[in-house]
Automatic annotation (TrEMBL):
Residues 44-293 form the Proline dehydrogenase domain. GO terms for biological process: L-proline catabolic process to L-glutamate. FAD binds at residues 132, 160, 182-184, 196, 221-222. GO terms for molecular function: nucleotide binding; proline dehydrogenase activity. Pathway: Amino-acid degradation; L-proline degradation into L-glutamate; L-glutamate from L-proline: step 1/2. This is proline dehydrogenase. It is an enzyme of class 1 (oxidoreductase). PANTHER family: PROLINE DEHYDROGENASE 1, MITOCHONDRIAL, PROLINE OXIDASE. Binds 1 FAD per subunit. It comes from the Bacteria. The lineage of its organism: Bacteria, Bacillati, Bacillota, Bacilli, Bacillales. Substrate binds at residues 97, 283-284.
């Protein structure tokens, strides 16, 4: 299990394979977990989810960008998504990654890109979630959020439970709308729990804390044990339904997504789209090699 995880994480970071994947389109199983390559296809997927009572957070796929031109192109595409959300009046908001907007190129350049997006979204009252990436980008990402939230309140972020510092961060950001996750990147034992059980325990602790003390909690997991625990916890503590939502990734546990929405819980699907699907998809395989089944299904459904 550990070796498979390391292997897929290694593949997710391989630049040659990544650019090759872009050229060859949505191959293998990626099609079932990526909602199309362009805005039109993505909006159709969002509408289909909205009809089932599911709201969406839209991710224009891309990360670890090292060229200004590419980062600017990504910003323009996210601005297109904001316009499309408004034009089609779909129930959706934005998720984005700072490294796609140039965090590795220049902090100020990235800040300006992010500000343009948050400002455009703010005009339509659309929320923007800053996804959290690996540890090396964690503090600069929080710095971007701190600076932006002096002027805008339509911004929130993610707390990754595998980090030792997560407890401090959740306390600091408790007045934000937060997505809580276990954490998807390979991190060193100096900064992050490695043991799955310890990560799960910390995840539950953080969820309970933010549900009791925080603004709005997005519980992002496919783990039925944690979802069942949360259901019982909110019942026992009289936490109103409008204080939290469950989130899952597009294409994963689809029946459970619909079921949770039917039970009356707020549910939000993370909807990635675009041609830069490779790193995203490899991380999903690293999390759960059984996700390879999605590849199998895709191949046999052709
Ligand atoms: P995990 O993979 O630990 O699985 C636990 C158990 O749940 C499994 O043993 C199995 O029983 C069951 N299970 C899980 N998936 C299943 C499936 N597909 N079918 C059947 N059973 C399944 N990470 C990050 O670092 N930064 C971020 O910004 C985000 N953002 C984000 C948004 C959303 C909406 C989600 C859902 C996740 C993220 N993540 C993330 C990823 C997150 O950190 C984590 O890596 C994955 O969600 C995998 O962990 P889980 O909690 O889903 O269950």
């Amino acid at each position: 299990m550990g070796l498979a995880k390391d292997f897929f994480i290694y593949l997710s970071q391989n630049k040659v394979l990544n650019s090759g994947a872009k050229r060859y389109g949505l191959k293998l199983g990626a099609k079932s977990v990526v909602a199309g390559t362009n805005v039109e296809e993505m909006i159709e997927s969002v509408k289909a989810l909205n009809i089932q009572g599911i709201s969406c957070t839209i991710d224009n796929l891309g990360e670890f960008v090292y060229e200004r031109e590419e980062a600017t192109k990504a910003k323009e595409q996210i601005l297109n998504v904001i316009e499309a959300i408004h034009e089609h009046q779909v129930d959706a908001h934005i998720s984005l990654k700072p490294t796609q907007l140039g965090l590795d190129i220049d902090y100020d350049f990235c800040f300006k890109n992010l500000k343009d997006i948050v400002e455009a979204a703010n005009r339509y009252n659309i929320f923007v979630n800053v996804d959290m990436e690996d540890y090396g980008h964690l503090q600069p990402s929080f710095d971007l959020i701190d600076e932006l939230s002096k002027s805008y309140n339509n911004i929130g972020t993610v707390i990754q439970a595998y980090f030792f510092r997560a407890e401090e961060d959740i306390e600091k950001y408790k007045n934000y709308r937060l997505r809580l996750v276990k954490g998807a990147y390979k991190e060193s034992s100096e900064v992050a729990y490695q043991d799955k059980q310890l990560i799960d325990q910390n995840f539950v602790r953080l969820i309970e804390y933010h549900l009791l003390h925080g603004k709005f909690t997005s519980i992002a997991t496919h783990d039925h044990n944690i979802i069942n625990h949360v259901k019982q916890f909110v019942k026992d503590n009289n936490i109103p339904l409008d204080k939290f939502e469950f989130q899952m990734l597009y294409g994963f546990r689809k029946d459970m997504q619909v079921q949770l929405a039917k039970e009356g819980f707020n549910f939000c699907t993370y909807v990635p789209f675009g041609d830069d699907w490779y790193g995203y998809f490899m991380r999903r395989l690293a999390e759960r090699p059984a996700n390879l089944q999605l590849v199998g299904k895709q191949v046999f459904n052709k």
